[in-house]
Amino acid sequence: MSVEAERTPLPFLWLSGAVFATGIICLALSWAFFPPAFTLPLLLVIVGAALSELFAFSFPIFSVSMAYPLAMSAALLGGPTAACLVAAVSSVSPSDIRRRRPLSIILFNVGQLLLSTALGGWFYVLLGGRTLGVGAVYQPLVSSDFPAALVGMLAAAVACSAVNLVATSLGVSTYQSRDFRQVFSDAAAFVPTQIPLAFVGFLMAQVMAINAFALPLFIFPLVISQQLYQRYTGLKEAYVDTVRSLVAALEEKDPYTRGHSERVATYATAIGASMRLDSKSLERLEYAALLHDLGKLALPRELLTKQDRLNLAELALMREHPANAARMIERIPPLRELAVLVTQHHERFDGAGYPLGIGGESIHVLARVLAVADSYDAMTTDRAYRPALTHQCAVAELIAGAGSQFDPDVVRTFIAAGIGCRDLPEGLPLRGPASVFVLDEGGV
Amino acid sequence: MCELFPLVQAPLFAMNTAEFTTVAVSLVALTVLVDAFDISLPRGDALGVGGALVAASIVLLGTPIAVVVGVACSVTAELLRRRRPDGRLVAASITRAAAASAGWFAYSIARSSDIRLAPVAVVALVAGAYLATEIVVLQVQAARHSHRKFGRLLRGNAGRQTPLLLAQVSASVLVVLTFSEMRVWSLIPVAALLLLMRQSYALLLDMRETYRMTTEVLVEAAEGQDRRREGHSDRTATIARRIAMRLGLGASEVERISYAALLHDVDAIGESGSGESDDHAVSGELGRSSELFTVSHLFCDVAPVLRVCDGLGSGVATASDATLLAAMVVALASDADCSTHPEVRDAHNGDLVRRVSPLVPATEKARAVAAAIELGYKIPAVS
């Protein structure tokens, strides 16, 4: 994995320099103990690594390429130095040059890849693994080299992946001023895929040592895996857009609900980001917000647009919508965990909400965020029974409800973050009991 | 046949009893591991990756032990997945037994031949025979299950699965290539390679199912506003899928038509929720479903079909014959459902066939109508 970003803060400059220097030292030490023999197989691996960067696939904060198994392959062929050389060649890609990536990022990536592959190579040899190169000749692994070679391979894969993960997370968190643990947990999801990739690299080395002409056998398996994974990530990234499209389409026909779920998602994720929730929680919040009113789609239009007070039967029907939405969402396996959020988004902090009547910390924190976002949007948009309130009035209502209807911490975060400030027509005067907090220019 | 070549063949590599047992146990364990996360689907357009190891076992263990091992692995994996035997267990066992038998046959021919084939050539032949038989048997089962024509199904799915088949043949060859040096240890990195392929494929299939489920749930939720429409989109999608399969269209086209059928009425859901009969329900007023799905990446190839269904002339000018055919199929499916559910016709946004039919070329129209009639659906008179 390597870092992708746009600006260059000073702490990152220092980090980049330190990592690059450490990587060069590792390369020098490895060269002293394992001088590389530039044989045809090793050169093929190096060229392959350089070309593989053309087919790397990118994620929001980092990219992954097929150079990783080639680096492991080089570690088996020629030890840590060979692995470092492959890593160094693959760390600068054509896209880096095309996009004029800052030098600090390039140096950081070179350094951390040198460091991780060197350590991986050293773990392999120190735990009993034999390199295949003996001068200019390669001797493939035989059964007597096992299980030491297997232990070495596993250790190399784990060490390389672990160092790469930590270094990349440190780089991204420093560069983007983000929480290290959050970046680490995002990136860690890809580590399990890297372990089998490492073994594929070792297999490639073994095949090269036996018969280099057999290397094309790896084309189909690796190309297929990469293409399938790229299609999967493409679909995954488009999924939230698809859900937005579908929800927007279904809300389109009603002027009172049009765009509601989208706005609630915006407010909820803004609150979540201010609360420094991890990316997984933010994603759950976004989906839950988009789908929280799914249950209302099934209600009669007359009920949703009624101007008068709802009677008891209508109120009971309306209060079924969170549970209805949860039942629908539970049918979509990846979204099942959102059912609890959708169910609880109308619960009150004092326990007087619906449908479960739970309160306080019993309500999921994300549901408490959703409640504030949902209520704020409901107050600041026109409804059948009243016009929209101003932002100031809506905030006053949130403050009035803090502790009773809403979680006070969430309300405080909402106000402090300045979420939802926009030009709205003048609305009704303040209603409700005296505020718990005092609102001034500086926030709460 | 026994005079031509002996059916019982020895393993390709000489092994003592201890090593043979170790290899056999390892092959069983790894094959069950890979099979336990099988990704094959009843419609036959996705294959598992365990076949590579079974094909390698034919060569490493000799026959007929390998056939028994292969079937046993399949049964074990299926039981681990489903916890109880069912129809799929029988189908999977038949598939594995047939494929292993074909591999056995190929191995016998290769070993008995006067041409001394290299071990990698032998295993490539065996893996090719095994996998080719596996895909044929899977298509036979899928054709029976979905009432589709076997020949078209095989052509479509075999073409799509060719890269995966070649990858599995490569994996089998890698086992044999490295076995001479690494012996039983060669199975581990090859199994890792297969698991990597399987993982990538499984993620993609899961994501596609998630998309489908999400679309179905949301459309169903919206239909709740008007009880007359309840289930219409889902039934239309089912009918449209059947007509599309009957036409012999490829899996991706069938999926596109299915999504278009699910979404064809989204713009109209809820507009006539009052329960009264609307004037525009018979006027053929233009729809707007296509406008609502221009943003989503997934629906970018569905939107052209919806534009034709909406009766938008601009959509027809740039539409391909495939898109026009797809729109005709959706229209026929929608009207076929309306004919069996009269309450839907009252709430429906116009007669879709009447709106779409003038826009579709005669040949495509005739094909779609013929397929619908063959399946026994009642459709309106089409000009």
Radius of gyration of chain A: 28 Å
SSE run of chain B:
HHHHHHHHHHHHHHH
Helical stretch tally of chain A = 19
Mean pLDDT of chain B: 79
Topology, number of strands of chain B: 0
Largest sheet of chain A: 3 strands, antiparallel
Report the β-strand fraction of chain B as a percent range.
under 5%
Report strand order across the widest sheet of chain A. 1-3-2
Q: Unreliable runs of chain A, pLDDT <50, ≥5 residues?
A: 423-444
For the terminal residues of chain B, how far apart are their CA atoms? 60 Å
Separation, N- and C-terminal Cα atoms of chain A:
42 Å
Oligomer: heterodimer
Helical residue percent band of chain B: 55-70%
The class by helix and strand makeup of chain A works out as mainly alpha
| Anisotropy-based shape of chain A | elongated
Largest sheet of chain B: none
Evaluate the radius of gyration of chain B: 26 Å
Provide a short characterization of the protein structure.
The complex is a heterodimer of chains A (444) and B (383). With 444 residues, chain A is mainly alpha-helical.
Keywords:
heterodimer; A: mainly alpha; three-stranded antiparallel sheet; 19 helices; 5 strands; 2% strand; B: 383 residues; 67% helix; elongated
General description of the model:
The complex is a heterodimer of chains A (444) and B (383). Chain A is mainly alpha-helical and 444 residues long. Chain A contains 19 helices and five strands. In chain A, the strands form two sheets. A three-stranded antiparallel sheet of chain A has the order 1-3-2. In chain A, helix 3 packs across helix 9 (191-210) and helix 4 (80-90) packs antiparallel against helix 6. Chain B is mainly alpha-helical. Helices cover 67% and strands 0% of the residues of chain B. Chain B has helices spanning 17-36, 51-61, 65-82, 87-112, 119-146, 150-182, 187-223, 232-246, 251-263, 303-309, 313-317, 321-340, 342-347, 352-356, 362-374. In chain B, helix 1 runs parallel beside helix 7, helix 2 crosses helix 5 and helix 6 (150-182) runs antiparallel to helix 7. In chain B, 54% of the residues are buried. Chains A and B meet through helix 9, helix 10 and helix 15 of A and helix 6 and helix 7 of B.
